[in-house]
Amino acid sequence: MTDIPGGLDPRSSGRITIDLNALVANWRDLKGRLAATCVCGAAVKANAYGIGLKPAAAALAAAGCRDFFVATPEEGLRLRSAQPTAHIHVLNGLYPGAAGDYVNHRLVPVLNAPPEVEEWLAFCRARGEAFEAALHVDTGMNRLGLTANEAEAVARAHPAFSPTLVISHLACADTPEHPLSALQLERFGRVRTLFPNAAASLANSAGVLLGPDYHFDLVRPGIALYGGSAGPGTPLRTVVTVETRILQMRSVAPRETIGYGAAFTAERPMRIAVIAAGYADCYLRQAGSSDGAPGGFAALAGHRLPIAGRVSMDLIALDVGDLGEDVAHRGALVELIGDTVPVDAVAEAAGTIGYELLTQLSPRLDRHYIGLPADGTGD
User: Would you call 21 helix, strand, or coil by DSSP?
Assistant: First the structure.
């Protein structure tokens, strides 16, 4: 059979379908868990976790989201070009010498260290205006952020400095019983009193799920918006579906091997589907299988298909079992990520997390958006 799946360019290896309605539903689910006084923002860094910054922000803004968090000023500039009224925070902080760009494009730096605070305040003094900034205080991640002592020193040295937002970041919130979350909550409660006029934000996706003690004034969910798990109770409407076509069907005799390194040996007569995707298309090499070590799986017509052998750059072999030729045939689309194959299941097979897979979504596959607002242009 040589039929072309409906809606897929015959020259394309497959497609990525991005359901923005599901994205918005996940955001609304999280927002519904908050007090009326708590704002639900959205982390849209890393190209909105791979799904496209501008379409994702357009959908979320249309649903009522006004507060967005990006990692870099470049991401902030891209978002500003599409969302002129959005409130945009740059989590990686103030880049040296770039204060004018932040101000000119209304990007709010999240100041992460005393030198950033000093540079920002010097810029404000030179301009004669107190421009908006947020302050990040580390409470246990030991990544970015001022220490508690540094925050106290800033508050003493610059009593007129009034950040509009004080944030910290939870390290272990996706493990609800981990004691570090409670310790970070206690530390954050103390440090926010140094800046009494600032709003407070501690919760990422997993932090929202920990309950109202962690919500404060603003939450900034990320992975849960995009259909990935942030722990028990995560809203998991599928946002991303990745499908690719079968290139060839073949039969493999017992004791024959499949793929690089002869790592997988057929123990029985096998029907194999070779599909047009590999580690160049976000499906990580570590998800392959070998003798005695099962790997990941794909799906066809609701049937899970184990990977047979290593994942190559552009190709994966799948064991189609007893599926008939009316189902498993050249040109049929196989689901790599979606309702039957959740992104976290693929990530687990590869020994990683859903974030890594989503942020590496293939540029080689066609993209199709469901629920794209009229003002939401593609990336």
Answer: helix
Which SS3 state, helix, strand or coil, does residue 117 take?
helix
For this structure, is 54 an active site residue?
no
Angle, helices 114-127 vs 148-157, to 10°: value is 20
CA–CA dist 38, 60 (Å, integer): 17
Q: pLDDT (tens digit, 9 = 90+) per residue, 90-129? A: 999 999 999 999 999 999 999 999 999 999 999 999 999 9
> Lowest mean pLDDT: which of 4-8, 9-13, 105-109?
4-8
| pTM reported for the whole predicted model | 0.94
User: And the tokens for 84?
Assistant: 């002129």
CATH architecture, range 33-225: Alpha-Beta Barrel (3.20)
Give the residue extent of every domain in the chain: 33-225, 238-370
Please report, as a single letter, which amino acid is at residue 99: A
Whether the pLDDT of residue 141 is over 90: the answer is: yes
How does DSSP assign 157-171, residue by residue? H-TT---SEEE---S
For 68, 203, 300, 334, the CA distances from 16, given in Å and listed in that order, are 24, 30, 16, 12
Class of domain 238-370: mainly beta
Per-residue confidence band for 235, with pLDDT thresholds at 50, 70 and 90: confident
Cα 191 to chain centroid distance, Å, stands at 29
Query: Is residue 102 annotated as part of the catalytic site, yes or no?
Result: no
Instruction: Choose, from 214, 226, 260, 369, the residue flagged as catalytic.
Output: 260
State mean pLDDT over 126-148.
97
Residue 303 pairs in a beta bridge with 300
Of the candidates 31, 45, 54, 369, the residue annotated as catalytic is 45
Residues in the chain: 379
Name the residue among 127, 23, 20, 6 with its Cα closest to residue 378. Answer: 20
Give the pLDDT confidence of 170-200 residue by residue, as tens digits.
Answer: 999 999 999 999 999 999 999 999 999 999 9
